[in-house]
Prior knowledge:
Layout: H1 5-29, H2 33-61
Helix pairs in contact: 1-2
Amino acid sequence: MNTTPEQIIETYAKAGWGLADFQARVAKASQTDWLKTVLEAQADLTRTVVSAQASAARSVLN
């Protein structure tokens, strides 16, 4: 089975967004306000970085 670069990028992006969703769920479950804030920020940063990297990779391919 051959995997295309586009499939690899899509898989990476889905995995990254899944990680960010997990981070957000952990933040929501936190009982400590400051920890909740840090974990939410981490989830947002993960989404931003994954989106930027996937976008950059796609632009190289096109």
